[in-house]
Amino acid sequence: MADTWDNVTIPEFNSLLQMDPYLKQYEKDFRRRYGLFEKRLFLLEEAEGGFDQFTRSYRTFGVNRMADNRLVLREWAPAAEALFLTGDFNGWDNFSHPYEKKEFGKWELCLPPKHDNSPAIEHNTKLKVVVHTKKGERLYRISPWAKYAIQSEKQVIYDWVHWDPPQPYLHIHPRPKKPQSLRIYESHVGIASPDPKVASYTNFTTNVLPRIKDLGYNCIQLMAVMEHAYYASFGYQVTSFFAASSRYGTPEELKQLIDTAHSLDIVVLLDVVHSHASQNTEDGLNSFDGSDSCFFHSPPRGEHALWGSRLFNYSSWEVLRFLLSNLRWWMEEYRFDGFRFDGVTSMMYHHHGIGSMFSGDYSEYFGLQVDEDSLVYLMTANHVLHTLYPDCITIAEDVSGMPAVCRSVAEGGLGFDYRLAMAIPDKWIQSLVGDKSLAFWLMDKEMYTNMSSLIPMTPVIDRGIQLHKMIRLLTHALGGEGYLNFMGNEFGHPEWLDFPRKGNNESYHYARRQYNLLDTDHLRYRQLYDFDRDMNRTEDKYGWLAAPPAFVSAKHEGDKVIVFERGNVLFLLNFHPTRSQTNYRVAVASPGKYTIKLDSDEVQYGGHGRLDHNTEFFTEPQPFNERENSMLVYIPCRTALILGNDDTESCY
């Protein structure tokens, strides 16, 4: 078998090796992965008329209305003995509408229109698939392809609702161009309001989108959109993969949200969960056809020991159809601009990352512990998305550091555009759901009493406000090729995040974002907000996120000073609590006159206003810290500065 992979050619593998020669010893692994990917692509072309058709299977599975108002229903339930459709349309008769068995475990049902030529199933009415198992059980299921599901009052189980509005929302605005610098506002629609309740898509469109635009973010990452029965799962226990969560409103209202974002030149990414699925049976995918497998591996491989959820069988043809079509559905129907793939670490390894520290030794990323079915799925997904939508953005949530995750498939990589650098927030705080916010770690209970600008800052508030700004700027400028902010952090959101659950008496008190704090002008939250806005706007001008990695010329432990250059600007950060640096020599590549472009110590940002913004800093041809030029600067304690060379152009 090894000889088979030796004949595989990875078109641009040499580019990968030039970047990282140490990967040469794992060339056979890369060839095998690429060979499996090529084989899958070939089979798609041969059997389904190419991946364009294959990934539009939402047009043939589930419920679809034809031009003559006939309804065609199709399901994949390989272990079922018989399938029936029941619902409001037939008075909940369990036997009147049987599906016809087709080959490869598929079932089909055609419903002619009514006498008045309207569809047999009306919009916004309830349905169920009745599955008869070989054991003689009768199960009531939601179609895996259901486009809408609701939780009726006082009901635990979600109901499948046929969604086919007579006047669907029509997108008006084109997709924005893919940003060169990605500044992401990570959002959860349900908590996007100060009120202790589940907020709506419409609230987000009306009240949150204008703030995001004002702040200078050019991308929104929407969490918890795919339908999930358990709200406190934060959206990561998905029950209906094709349904936009109804707890926030209708599919049409989500489409309007995305269209409005596009009108503001903001791209929208979906937090897509293809790493696992809820173990719910009555309103989830689990045991859809009565078996312990169907879309998943049989236990134990098909179960996640820590998450209590089901794991997909990525080698299955019909699972591939389901997941790839799911990506296409969100791109086509809702006009999302890309995806953040959740749980990629769990997908890539048979051990799912459980108990693995990932030291960085390359042997950890190759060999039998790697789930190559998952890797091939991710390669295929990225290939499909980037071929059909060249501006599509894909982000991998991977904490393992797997090499080549963000290299193109043609190089032998997985094809992602970005990887979420989750170790960075964990370096500041263990940023978990239920943990205190960064601002609350810094200032804690004093945020309840001492955030007014009408009173002098206490030492705790002063320290917290200055460090909060510095931490954000350092992460923004040095953290990678994109910046992600979780909603509320831009203004130092107090307290913590916790969803209603039994343990907190189903309280919404911490499952909300207190944007109202910004509307009280004398509170210092507005100062932190203004700094975030101007930090993003400065990046927009100089483009450091799209620039090559920074050159760090100083990281002085004693002085608590960090100095680096990126995107033709100079970053100066003095973390010392008491010592301002006067006549402090810093290295710089480009000679010339430098002026202040951003100053965290400005009074409008809650600083002390210790710098004169008319000051000009001139370089000297005096080599310092591996740079040809240097200059003397003044950096107040607990201050971050950006200096720009007025003699050079910005990156853009």
From TrEMBL:
<dbReference type="GO" id="GO:0043169">
    <property type="term" value="F:cation binding"/>
</dbReference>
<keyword id="KW-0808">Transferase</keyword>
<dbReference type="GO" id="GO:0003844">
    <property type="term" value="F:1,4-alpha-glucan branching enzyme activity"/>
</dbReference>
<dbReference type="Pfam" id="PF02922">
    <property type="entry name" value="CBM_48"/>
</dbReference>
<dbReference type="Pfam" id="PF02806">
    <property type="entry name" value="Alpha-amylase_C"/>
</dbReference>
<dbReference type="GO" id="GO:0005978">
    <property type="term" value="P:glycogen biosynthetic process"/>
</dbReference>
<dbReference type="InterPro" id="IPR004193">
    <property type="entry name" value="Glyco_hydro_13_N"/>
</dbReference>
<dbReference type="InterPro" id="IPR013783">
    <property type="entry name" value="Ig-like_fold"/>
</dbReference>
<dbReference type="InterPro" id="IPR013780">
    <property type="entry name" value="Glyco_hydro_b"/>
</dbReference>
<dbReference type="GO" id="GO:0004553">
    <property type="term" value="F:hydrolase activity, hydrolyzing O-glycosyl compounds"/>
</dbReference>
<protein>
    <recommendedName>
        <fullName>1,4-alpha-glucan branching enzyme</fullName>
        <ecNumber>2.4.1.18</ecNumber>
    </recommendedName>
</protein>
<comment type="similarity">
    <text>Belongs to the glycosyl hydrolase 13 family. GlgB subfamily.</text>
</comment>
<dbReference type="GO" id="GO:0007399">
    <property type="term" value="P:nervous system development"/>
</dbReference>
<dbReference type="InterPro" id="IPR006048">
    <property type="entry name" value="A-amylase/branching_C"/>
</dbReference>
<dbReference type="InterPro" id="IPR006047">
    <property type="entry name" value="GH13_cat_dom"/>
</dbReference>
<keyword id="KW-0328">Glycosyltransferase</keyword>
<dbReference type="GO" id="GO:0005737">
    <property type="term" value="C:cytoplasm"/>
</dbReference>
<dbReference type="Pfam" id="PF00128">
    <property type="entry name" value="Alpha-amylase"/>
</dbReference>
<feature type="domain" description="Glycosyl hydrolase family 13 catalytic">
    <location>
        <begin position="155"/>
        <end position="524"/>
    </location>
</feature>
<feature type="active site" description="Nucleophile">
    <location>
        <position position="342"/>
    </location>
</feature>
<dbReference type="InterPro" id="IPR017853">
    <property type="entry name" value="GH"/>
</dbReference>
<dbReference type="InterPro" id="IPR014756">
    <property type="entry name" value="Ig_E-set"/>
</dbReference>
<feature type="active site" description="Proton donor">
    <location>
        <position position="397"/>
    </location>
</feature>
<dbReference type="InterPro" id="IPR037439">
    <property type="entry name" value="Branching_enzy"/>
</dbReference>
